[in-house]
Amino acid sequence: MEKPHDTAGSMQFPQHAVEEEVGISEHLGPGVPGFSGQFKSRWQDFHVHEVDLAGIELHLTELITPGAVAAELKKEAEERREARNALGPSFFFDSTTEAAVHDAIGQKYSQELLGFLQEQAPPKKETPPELPEEPPEKAERRDFLDLIAAEVKDGSKEARKKAHEVILKHFGSFLNTETVEAKPGEGEAGTRVIRIWMREAEKKVKTSMGKAAPEEGKGTRKGKNKSKGKGQKGKGDKGVKTPDAGGDFGALRREGWPKDRPEYLYFRLYKENCDTGEAVSGIARCVGRSAKQFTFAGTKDRRAVTVQQICAHRLPADQLRRTVLHRGWDKRVRISDLEYRADRLRLGQLSGNRFKILLREVPVDALAGSGPADQVSESTVSRAFEAVRTGGFLNYFGLQRFGTRQVKTHQVGAAIIARKWEEAVHLILGGAKRPAEVEAASDRPCKLPRKEGDEHVPLNEGDEDEGDQPQVKAVKGRGKGDAQKLVSEAQRVYLDTGDAQRALELMPRSHSLERCLLGARARALTNQEALQQLPHQALSLYAHAAQSVIWNAVLSRRLRHFGRSPVAGDLVLLAAQEWTVDQVLEGVEAEGDEPDETPTADGRCGTALPPVRILTEEEAKTVRLQDVVLPLPGFEVVYPSHLRDAYEELSQRLLGLSLADFSECTMVRLSGSYRTAAACPQDLQWHALSPESLQSTPALMETDVARLLSEREHNPQLENRSEKSQAEYSEGKGTGAVAFSCILPPSSYLTMMLRELMKTGV
C-alpha cells in the first residue's frame, strides 16, 4: 500500500518526555501554531459538570446547609410534639383521618383506637421543687392496643398491610405497629394480632426488659467491648440476651425499607479541590455506611470544582440530609437533588462532561484580535480554537491514564498480563524486581493487625495534583509531609527486608491499595493471591493502562506512516442502520479526564463489542478521521491488516508482551474494545480576557454555590469573597487569559484537547 504524504512536514514541536514514553507524539493540525498559558494553576479555574445519559448537564440546584437542616428538624420536632400533646380525653379524629382509619380497620377497631388515644395524656412536665406534685392518675393508661388480625376487615395479608400503612401514615410520629402472636395474659393466647404501640412506651418496655434479661441466663460476657467477630461464636453465650432483646415483648426493630420505595438514592455531589473517592468516603463515614454502597459513573478531577451523580443503596434521603450536621462533614462537599430510582448507577453511565476552563498567563500578542467563535479573527488563540472546533484533536489516552509515579500503571498492567505476580506487587509498592535475598524473610506468616479509624483532615488548597495515586491525607498529629515519609519508609521496609507486617504498620490508611497488598502478604498469601485481594476495578485499571499505551503508540505510528486522513484498510463501526458519515460514535472510556475502567466499547456496561467494517479505497474518501477506530488489544477485536505488525512490534518493544498475552490474561478478562482515532468537542465556545478585564471582572468563573448565594438577597459574605479572590488572582504583567467551555464525550481527555490547542505537553 502506498503511503500518503505526511502533512506534518518538517515542522517540529517540543515534546514532553513523559508523553513519548506512553506513545503520544503527534498533533492533528501541526500546521496551526499553538500558544502558551497556565492550565489549572488554581483549582478554581477548572469546572466539570457531568452530563447524564438523558443529556442533562448536572448542576447544584439548592444549598442544603446545616442551618437549614437544623431548622427543618426543629420544625418537625415541634409538629410531633404538638401532635402528641393533642392526645387525651378531648382528642378526636378529623373527618379525613376518621374515614381513612374506618376504611382500613373497620368501625369497631376505629372506636377502640380512638379510646386508646384518649387514654394517653400529654407527657408530664417536670414539677418545680416549690410546687406540690400532681396527684397520680386514677386510671392506668395502656402502652399498646391489640387488634385481632383475622378481624381486621377480611383478615387477609393485604388488609393487615393496609392497616399498618394507614396507622403509621396518620399517627406515625407517636405510634408504631407490629404483627405478633398474643401470649398468655394478653387475650387469647396464640392469636395473631396487630399491636399498636405508643412509641415512647415501646422503647421503654423493650429496652428495660432487655437490660434485665442477662441476669437470668448463663454465660454473661464480662469485660468492656468484648464482642464477637463476624461469623464467630463465643463460649458460654447460651442463654444470653442482647441489651435490645425485649423479653416477652420482643426486640426493638429497625424500620424496614419500604417495599414501594425504589432501592437506590441518587444525589448530585458538588465538590471543591478533592477527588471523588475522598468525597464519597467522607459521606459514607458520616452516614455510617461502607463506601462500597456508593457508586458513580466516573471519577472527577481533584483540583477542580465538579458536579456529578452519586448513587447509594438503601440510604434514606432524610438521613443523608441530616448528615450535613455531622461534625465530620467535609465543608468542601455539598449535595442536592435527592431522589429514589429503581436501578443502580454504574460506571460509564454518562454521555459526557461539560468543561469550563480558564487558561491564565496567555501572552497578549497571542490574544490580539481574538473574539468569540462566531467572529473568528486571525489571532493565534482564535486560529487554534477554530481548528479544534472544526477538525477535533487526536483521541490519545492522557497522561492521567498512566499515573504520576516513577513506576507507571501500564508497567504494573504488563506484569499482571505476563503473570509476573511478584514483579506486579513490587511495582505497586513503588519498587522494581524484588531482591533475591529477601525471599525467605517475606514468606513468613504474620498476623494482620487491627486497623484504627482514620481522621478526616482537609487537604491544603495549594497541594499539587497527584493523578491516580492515592491521596495522602494528614493524620492526627502529622502533616502531609510526615505522612509521605511514612509511605516511603513503609515501601523501603518491604522492598529491602520483605517484612510485610512492619511495612503495614507504617503505611497510612489513606493508601488502601498498598495496605491491602501488605495485609495479604502479612497473612502469608502468595503474590498472586495478594493481587486478587485488590478491588477488581484497580486490577482492571492496571491492565487497561497496558492496552492504552499500545493504542497510543499505534495511533502515532499510523499518523506518521499513513497521514491524517482515512485510508483503505482502516476500521469504522458498523451502524445498525445504513452507514452515514454523520454518525456519532461513542468511545470506550468511562470518564473524560480521570482514568477509569469501562468494560465495553460504547461506554456502557453489559453490552457486547460493536461490529466493525474495513474501509475500501472509495469509502475512505467519504469518512473523517473521527469515524476511524483503532482496537485496544484483546481476544474479541479485529486488527487492521496494515497495522497488525505495528501492534505486535510495539507491544513487544514497549511492554515485552505479544498480542496473544492480552488474549490469554487470566486475572483480568481483556476482550478489547474500539476507540475513535480523533474526537471533536461539542458546543465549543471561547473568549479572551485582556489584562485590564482580568482586574475589573468580579467573578471570572462562577461556581454553582456562588450562583445560588447570589440569588439570595444581599449577601456580604459573597461580596467579600469576590473581592478577596480578585486580590489573590492578580496576573503577571503583559498577560491575559482565555476562558472556554465545551462538552467532551466520556471517551476523551481534556488534556489531549489542550495539547492540540497549545502544541505543548500539558
Characterise this structure:
The structure is a single chain. With 762 residues, this protein is of the alpha+beta class. Strands 1, 5, 6, 7, 8, 9, 16 and 17 form an 8-stranded mixed sheet that branches. Strands 12-11-13-14 form a 4-stranded antiparallel sheet, with helices on one face. Strands 2-4-3 form a 3-stranded antiparallel sheet. It is 34% helix and 14% strand. Keywords: Isomerase, tRNA processing. Residues 220-233 have a biased composition (Basic residues).
Write a short abstract of this structure.
The chain is an alpha+beta fold and 762 residues long.
Features:
23 helices, eight-stranded mixed beta sheet, isomerase, Multisubstrate pseudouridine synthase 7 (RNA pseudouridylate synthase 7) (RNA-uridine isomerase 7), 17 strands, four-stranded antiparallel beta sheet, PsdUridine_synth_TruD, alpha+beta, single chain, 14% strand, tRNA processing
